[in-house]
Amino acid sequence: MRTGKEPTTARSPLRMRLWLSLWGLAWAVFGVTAFAVNGRTGWAVACGVLLALILADLCVVVYRLRRGTQPGGPGPERKENP
Questions:
Q1: The pLDDT of residue 5 is above 80
Q2: Are 16 and 24 in contact, with CB atoms under 8 Å apart?
Q3: According to the model, what pLDDT value does residue 70 have?
Q4: pLDDT band at residue 47 under the 50/70/90 scheme
Q5: Cα separation of 31 and 53, whole Å?
Q6: Residue 23: helix, strand or coil by DSSP?
Q7: Which residues touch 34 (CB under 8 Å, ≥6 apart)?
Q8: How far does the chain reach from its first CA to its final CA, in angstroms?
Q9: CA dist., res. 58 & res. 50, Å (int)
Q10: Which residue, 28, 58, 54, is CA-closest to 43?
Q11: What DSSP assignment string belongs to 24-77?
Q12: Residue 17 has pLDDT above 60, yes or no
C-alpha cells in the first residue's frame, strides 16, 4: 500500500551503492599500490583504511541484495499495515 507521493517506478539505492563501492574499490587498490610503490607510507595506509571500509560496505550491500531487503522497506520480519 502506497501512502506517499513516491514514484511507482522507484529503484533501490543498493544497486547504485554496489557500483559506487566497486568503483571506489578499484581506486583504493590503485591508491594503495601507487603510494606503496612510491614510498608514501602514510597515504598508502590511508588508502588501505578506505579499502577496508569499502569492502565492509560492499559486504553489507551484497548481503542485502541477496536477502532481498531494502533500506526503509518491509523486510521479512516487518509487515505493512493493511
A1: no
A2: no
A3: 59
A4: very high
A5: 14
A6: helix
A7: none
A8: 7
A9: 12
A10: 28
A11: HHHHHHHHHHHHHHTT-HHHHHHHHHHHHHHHHHHHHHHHHHHHT--TTS--SS
A12: yes
Cα-Cα-Cα-Cα torsion 45, 50, 54, 57, nearest 10 degrees, comes to: 120
Amino acid at 7: P
The cell for 32 is 594503495
- Grade residue 65 by pLDDT with cuts at 50, 70 and 90: confident
Q: Is the pLDDT of residue 74 over 60?
A: no
Could you give the CA distance from residue 29 to residue 35 in angstroms, rounded to a whole number? 10
Kindly report the number of other CB atoms within 10 A of residue 26's CB atom.
Answer: 11
Which tops the pLDDT comparison, 67 or 42? Answer: 42
